[in-house]
Give the backbone structure.
Amino acid sequence: MMSEFEEDCIKTYGRVLTGKYKHYCAEWDYVPIDETFPEFEVCHCFKFNSNVKAGADINAGDGGYSESTKKKYDEFVKLREANMVNKTERKNKDREIYIIDAVSMFRMRYAVFATCEEDAMDEFTMRLQDSNFCEMSQKHIDENIVSVRKVSQKKFLKQYDEDNGPCTWSDEQKLSVINVIDYED
């Protein structure tokens, strides 16, 4: 009998993934992937090895290198959030909120049958927004900071709402996305 993960692999790819890092990837809307896929290069699920073992028992049950399910991932997230320090509590009252804007760059690759380069580039330009125009591959290149600004808590919450639209999150939940520097380490 096949597991849910194996069934999803068959539905998606016509084969079962067998890589060491096979998993449902949160970065790719929980599509099953492993290290043989180009998407794995930008997957953060295994980026920080210290985090792999932390969620292993809940997320995969065998060291974090095998199959998982969306349900197990959700359980892992709940446990992780329950064990997190309340990020809204600041030990150092001198800290301020800084919003950093960054641009993420990807190398996108397309293939076009054409009689010359100009026609291929024209086809790309004209059909890029067409849902039938297929992407061949992509690779994350880098992320660069374009601006940083200090904001009040009120301005942070306003910016959060502008960026994310209507949301049922409380202000405390919104504030929990602020990354905190641990100056004691």
Remarks:
- The helical segments are 4-13, 49-54, 56-59, 70-83, 117-127, 153-164, 171-175.
